[in-house]
Amino acid sequence: MWVSETMLQQTRVDTAVPYYERWMAALPTVDALARAGDEQVLRLWEGLGYYARARNLSRAAREVRERFGGRIPADPDQLRTLPGVGAYTAAAVASIAFGRDVAAVDGNVRRVLARLAAVAGPARRPPASRTLEALAAALLPPGTARVHNQAVMELGALVCTPRDPACAACPVAGPCRARAAGRPEAYPERTQKKTVPHHRVAVGIVCRDDGRVFIDRRPYGGLLGGLWEFPGGKIEPGETPEDALHRELDEEFGLRVAVEGALGPVPHAYTHFRVTLHPFLCRFASMVPRAGEGRPWQWVPGDALDRYPMPRANRKILAQLRTSNLEPERKRSPCPPGSPT
């Protein structure tokens, strides 16, 4: 329950299922997760997004082992002390896994209750959020939280859907105030969407004559934390992608390269912004590492890249490289296996 509820944060069920199956096959117990290394954890999670969830699961497993003797606590207040476990996840695990009488309020439940009681305002913001949480607790039948919570979630997922709700099939259509008003889709109130920013990023696949490729690791505290990627950075106004690549490689790593060719742009969307990556196949020229605390980096064999957890956008670049018709200027270019030489 804990793993599945964590995966389902910001992720559709059909997307999460294969990840869940692979995860549980590889890490079937809390102890197995507590002993797993970051590389394995992030590689299993790769492509699911919101990587802090995976890092928090790993940290929390170690805390369960150290603080609770390896047994996941049944008490929702204790569950909430674990990294990455919020009110909903704690309530879902406590009620569904342990039968505790606590209401689990997710997006589906909020929508059902907002329509049932015609609660005004965005469902995730006060005062509407507090009203919905209190209503969920008041409607919880003692001793049946395990079934009740799942039933209301399913009602929201399958019947009381965001658009075109199947009110005629709803078991609580009678007392539903939003239906009585003839405007169920008006609840809960939607927040206005912000403009999604777009960034252009230059990326280098830097190869050495011995067949190794340069990758660096993103900081753990930020976006895609802990994943390995091809180096690069944002293209500044007035810069060409190739100029930006040379600048970023030099600023970050003291790395000098010869660009041998460009791959096609790679668009990718995140929740709050979009990027277009401009990848270049490069040959290593020289490197004078920068002093101070920089990002960890490695030269890895091209055929080992699949073992490193990487952002999905970087996997797109790697796939394009391996199927492209790019002809490097120097025929000995040590690209990853399957790419042109």
Quick description:
With 341 residues, the chain is α+β, with helices and mostly antiparallel strands. 39% of the residues lie in helices and 15% in strands. The protein has helices at 2-7, 13-26, 30-35, 38-45, 52-67, 76-79, 87-98, 107-117, 128-139, 145-158, 177-180, 241-253, 312-323, and strands at residues 198-207, 212-217, 228-229, 232-234, 255-262, 266-269, 274-287, 297-301.
Topology:
Layout: H1 2-7, H2 13-26, H3 30-35, H4 38-45, H5 52-67, H6 76-79, H7 87-98, H8 107-117, H9 128-139, H10 145-158, H11 177-180, E1 198-207, E2 212-217, E3 228-229, E4 232-234, H12 241-253, E5 255-262, E6 266-269, E7 274-287, E8 297-301, H13 312-323
Parallel strand pairs: 1-7
Antiparallel strand pairs: 1-4, 2-3, 2-8, 5-7, 6-7
Q: Any idea what the CATH superfamily of the largest domain is called?
A: Hypothetical protein, domain 2
User: Helical proportion?
Assistant: 25-40%
C-alpha Rg (nearest Å): 25 Å
Q: Which parts are unreliable, with pLDDT below 50 for 5 consecutive residues or more?
A: 327-334
Number of strands: 8
